[in-house]
Amino acid sequence: MSSSEPEQSHRPEEEETAPAEDEDTGAQVAPIVRLEEVAVTTGEEEEESILDLKAKLYRFDKDGNQWKERGAGTVKLLKHKESGKVRLVMRQSKTLKICANHLVIPTMTVQEHAGNDKSCVWHAADFADGELKNELFCIRFASLENCRTFMATVQEVAETQGKKEDNEDASDTAGLLETLSVGDGKTEEGKELEEKPVVAKEDKQAVGEGKEQEEKPVVAKEDKQAVGDHAKPEAENKDEPAS
């Protein structure tokens, strides 16, 4: 009979224990490079948000005669705190790259897209690529309500900007008219000064001599004879010898 050898079993002391993954070893590693916090500016610090919606933007390619996607992200209407101008800005959600960046002007109109009621189109002079380009945009929202909100807000802003420009033009016209009226008043004063006769130096001397002649007393002919008669006896008395 063949005897079978008993299987060798590992002793607990011989078993190797692997450290747990979340085990704290207590080692501290100091950072090699210390990074300081840097203030990041977006260019929107002086503006307040009027509208903030998520959407997908398309641009019409004239060369290929087709719509091309610009990116999906957040579209905003930002109003400047001092000037009051409103611009449309859209950035991609992950990279924050600018998809659209243009002012909302009074002549801007947003229309519904014929193929999709959740989309709308408009023309604008866009500056997203660093230079002004006339673009035809199409934006698509997740819901019909967001699309209508976008259209109504843009239309309201465009009308407000138009009224503001009209008020500024009226103020400029009033200021121009006021300037012209002040100029006319000064011109009339200048004309009055021009109409006054300017007396030259020689004329002043002649006028002065004329006044002196007027101030001298005029002696009549008879008075001159009387003076002569009085003068003759005095002369005769001087010729008589003294006694």
Helix content: 25-40%
Strand order of the largest sheet: 4-3-2-1-7-6-5
Q: Average pLDDT across residues?
A: 76
Number of helices: 3
Architecture overview:
There is one protein chain. With 243 residues, this protein is of the alpha+beta class. It is built from three helices and seven strands. The protein has helices spanning 144-195, 201-215, 221-239, and strands spanning 47-61, 66-80, 86-92, 98-103, 111-112, 119-126, 133-141. A seven-stranded antiparallel β-sheet has the order 4-3-2-1-7-6-5. A hairpin with a 5-residue loop joins strand 3 and strand 4. The longest helix has 52 residues, at 144-195. It is extended. The model is unreliable at 230-243 (pLDDT under 50).
Give the key terms.
243 residues, 7 strands, alpha+beta, 35% helix, disordered C terminus, single chain, 3 helices, extended
Briefly summarize what is shown.
By secondary structure, the protein is α+β, with helices and mostly antiparallel strands.
Indicate the topology.
Blueprint: E1 47-61, E2 66-80, E3 86-92, E4 98-103, E5 111-112, E6 119-126, E7 133-141, H1 144-195, H2 201-215, H3 221-239
Antiparallel strand pairs: 1-2, 1-7, 2-3, 3-4, 5-6, 6-7
